[in-house]
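Sorry, any thoughts here?
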Amino acid sequence: MNHFLRQEFNKLYNKEAENAYFCPGRVNLIGEHIDYNGGLVMPCAITFGTYLLVSPNNDGVFRFRSLNFDDKLDIPVQDDYGKTAEYWFNYPLGVIDYFLKDGHPVVGLDMLFYGDIPISSGLSSSASIEVVTAFALNNLMKGGYSKLDLVKLSKSVENNFIMVNCGIMDQFAVAFGEKNKALMLNCDTLDYQAVDSNLGEYILAIINTNKPRKLAESKYNERVQECQAALQALQLELDINNLCDIDTETFNKYSGLITNEVIYKRAKHVIEENDRVKLAAVALSKNELEEFGRLMYASHDSLRDLYEVSGAELDAVAEYCKTDSDVVGARMTGAGFGGCAIALVKESAFESFSKKVTAYYTDKIGYAPSVYRSLIGDGVVELAG
């Protein structure tokens, strides 16, 4: 891949790329819709991601090119930038804007991006672009930022430049990911633990529902508000800042404070899911994949029944997986209402799994999903020449 991209860079700019970088996408193995409730999530980096090849130029111009999109941008170096309509290059432009506003002198750059993450799949292609750009600029301009600084910087770009109200999990996972490790991350404190995740004879299957995600944003904001309502009810008697400050046992004791049934269901999912992440970390570290798989199914059921963010497409994938003896566990991953599901599938059975889940899904939903295989990979990195 690196060699092919270097040839493409040469064709575009008629010179060699001086530096090359890669940043993966991510899946969240378990712990869904609790990042904004101060809870624990367990993402891992995947082996798809974003490549960035770059060389400084003497023209005082930033040139953005991508092998994925026809849209391109040439823009002079200036003091600050604003978002330009809905183009892919807003993500790297936002990072450059951050560096400039933080007082770092930036020279003109010729850039070529290429991503093999399926677009709009919920596998964090945007975080991948932001972090690879931030990592590259920090490296090239000797910015002096730590990796955690780059994560916070990239989240700030997403929130304040792109104007998407996301948490920090995506940027954190693609920066700090480690091969064969899941990251148990506390979204409140940013403390994390790398959990050994030797999948043995299993691999991650990523099943993209290919459903356009129209609802996700409005429903996401609705769920955030519902969780705030649950927290306020519990704070009448409990001294807590986040729903995930209590465990299931405490919640059951005080849940009578929540009088609205829908709000109760939302809070029950969040608090039980947070407990599931702790159990999942133990199961993974002991290599108890069957127990981990059971927790994945329990997570999906809760997201379907209590949090109501799955939908027919994601449910069809989980239903099929429960019937396949080569699958140890499956669940939706990400915000829901489309996007992706993940499954732990025997590597030797991946091809037959792919065919069977595609047939089942197509029969139920009316169009085919896309099925990918991935291992748990490393975070952002500079690539050797």
